[in-house]
Amino acid sequence: TEVTEKLEEVVIIWIKQIRQILVESEQMRREADDIGPSAELEHWKKRMSSFNSLLDEIKSSKVKKIISILQAARSKTLKQWKELDGNITVAANEAKDNVKYLYTLDKFFGLFAKASPVTMMEHVPSLMNTVCMIYCTSPYYNTSECMTSLLLKITNQMINTCKTYLCEG
After folding, report:
1. Please, which of 77, 106, 115, 126 could form a disulfide with 120 given CB 3.0 to 4.6 Å?
2. Chain centroid, CA 4 distance in Å
3. In 3D, which of 116, 109, 118, 112 has the Cα closest to residue 167?
4. What is the CA radius of gyration of the chain?
5. Is the dihedral of CA 147, 148, 154, 157 positive or negative?
């Protein structure tokens, strides 16, 4: 029982740390007003990397051994652990999925950054078709919050491109 108590203490510390990570990942992002859409992809890539690292850690042999010992001891802390393990898996899947979908827009981000307003407008219909495809098929990114953020960033990029074009001309 002494060993079980020590292991439960360790797992409780992990639970607190993981909860903190999950809470921080759900907080509103503070971004510059003129930030472009490539920042959205970068955000989700960082988030995917963080949650994948966390998943790797949770699936390590050390953690698995501790969890199996606590399972054998029928520890009550495992209920919280399993719930957090599921939440991390969902967050990792969301980030991975969002990166996959946002990569379909990546070709437009480069085009829009370097284009003239005329050539940029030629790509708007296919860009919007791709955004529509993401909205219709993504299980995670099809929220109004995500779409609003993405469209705002696309608009920012278009405005920045036009400003640059006007200043050069």
Report:
1. 115
2. 35
3. 116
4. 22
5. negative
Q: Which amino acid is at 60?
A: S
Tokens 């990792």: give the residue. 92
- Token readout for 169 is 């001309």
pLDDT over 90 at 133, yes or no: yes
Angstrom distances, CA of residue 79 to CA of 8, 85, 155:
12, 10, 45
* Residue 40 contacts residue 95 (beta carbons within 8 Å): no
pTM for the model stands at: 0.86
Helix ranges (H only) for 104-140 are 106-114, 117-137
Sign of CA dihedral 138, 140, 142, 148: negative
What pLDDT is attached to residue 169? 64
Residue type, 74: R
Q: Is the pLDDT of residue 29 over 80?
A: no
CB atoms within 10 A of CB 75: 18
To the nearest 10 degrees (0 to 180), the angle between helices 38-58 and 77-103 is 150
